[in-house]
Amino acid sequence: MYRILSKTNIASNIDRYIIEAPDVAAKAQPGQFVVLRLHELGERIPISISDWNAKDGTLTLVVQTVGRTTEQMAQLQAGDCIQDVLGPLGNPALIEPVGTVACVAGGVGTAIIYPEAREHHRVGNRVITLVGARSREHLFYQEELAEVSQRLVVATDDGSHGYKGFVTDLLRQVIDDGTYLDQVIAIGPIPMMQAVAELTKRYDIKTVVSLNTIMMDGTGMCGACRVRIGDEIKFCCVDGPEFDAHLVDFEALLQRSRLHERSGQVAPSDGKECSCQCQEQSIL
Ligand SMILES: Cc1cc2nc3c(=O)[nH]c(=O)nc-3n(C[C@H](O)[C@H](O)[C@H](O)COP(=O)(O)OP(=O)(O)OC[C@H]3O[C@@H](n4cnc5c(N)ncnc54)[C@H](O)[C@@H]3O)c2cc1C
Ligand code: FES
Question: Looking at the domain that runs over 2-89, which CATH code has it been given?
Fold first, then answer.
């Protein structure tokens, strides 16, 4: 069992949890995630490791309430326990001195990009962080990101804070202003990552995305998280979650996530038709 040491509401529908998980905190690295199971009969959900403290044995997770399990999690309070915290899973982000890096985050992706921006800053890269949110109430981690960024720019869809528009407009402005970017990292909703990938491909800027596919076991066994990367099929949980953005088949990813949004079920990988009749096999 993993005890919740503190829980703080940091934005509309978004809570930050500090969890006692010394085994995971000892090995965590930027870009990795855990799979949570709240109770014995609970579903497994993947959540990125937003921060950790190996000395204290704690993990910080930032969770947006979107459906059944995240709603159940939002009911938990400090002192309550989570049945399983499996991890760290996934490959650590590849972070090395490259020059100037733009970290582009949308929604809860802001929490996921934070440890990566911090690590880029630590290794000496110049970090330009661009954050997009629906409105000012959905913004969080601004001070934390400002501390590790040479420049932090914010866009809100409704203009209630910062630039009115999409974060991809901000990225285009940064590029058009003549800032040379050695690398871009984009983490957020699939359409946002797709738009970033299309933009940076035109400018030939190396770009990495962290994919938030549907996942079940998180260990490469079930096939739920498969994605097409170039000519290959990869499993997001063990081969990712970060991939070369210019090789990701975003259309298939979007189609797959939309079908399962309607059905609320995840496809099997055993060669049979998906139980939700989504004709899964024809998508990938
Ligand atoms: C590697 C990885 C890291 C993630 N990190 C975080 C994180 O740090 N914080 C966070 O809040 N969320 C994160 N997610 C997304 C999170 O796992 C889902 O929001 C969660 O599983 C939804 O569970 P639910 O039972 O509450 O919602 P469900 O009832 O299963 O679904 C509700 C809605 O959420 C959508 N949804 C379900 N799974 C996902 C998903 N994987 N990505 C996007 N939308 C989804 C469904 O299509 C549906 O519209 C991550 C996902 C992955 C794959
Ligand atoms: S979640 Fe099962 S293979 Fe990735």
Answer: 2.40.30.10
Three-class DSSP category at 32:
coil
Give me ligand 2 centre to Cα 41, in Å. 19
Looking at the CA of 235, name the nearest ligand.
2
In the chain, the amino acid numbered 27 is K
Domain boundaries defined on the chain: 2-89, 100-256
Residue pLDDT, tens place only, 107-152? 999 999 999 999 999 999 999 999 999 999 999 999 999 999 999 9
Of the candidates 248, 183, 242, 224, the one whose C-alpha atom is nearest the C-alpha of residue 32 is 242
Pair of tokens at residue 57: 């044995």
Q: Under CATH, what is the fold of the domain 100-256?
A: Rossmann fold (3.40.50)
Ligand in nearest proximity to the CA of 233: 2
The contacts of residue 150 (CB under 8 Å, 6+ apart) are 126, 127, 128
